[in-house]
Specification:
2 helices, single chain
Length: 68
């Protein structure tokens, strides 16, 4: 399900600010395009070699990557 709340946008901004000083106004275009998706445990976000031009912020939980 895709849904984005003001709290999701605030949390994404807070995560981004952990990596670099960033004003909310400067990050606004990213936040406007933000789409949140809930994934079930074990659900695949994307596969190796799949073109995914998006950036990802993990708002809740853990993101695991593996190469087999």
């Amino acid at each position: 399900m895709l849904s984005t709340t003001p709290a999701d946008r605030a949390q994404a901004l807070q995560i981004a600010q952990m990596f670099a000083p960033l004003a909310a106004a400067d990050f606004a275009p990213v936040l406007q395009g933000l789409r949140c998706e809930d994934l079930a445990p074990g659900q695949v976000l994307f596969h190796m070699g799949q073109a995914r031009p998006q950036e990802y912020f993990v708002l809740h939980g853990l993101l695991r990557s593996s190469v087999a």
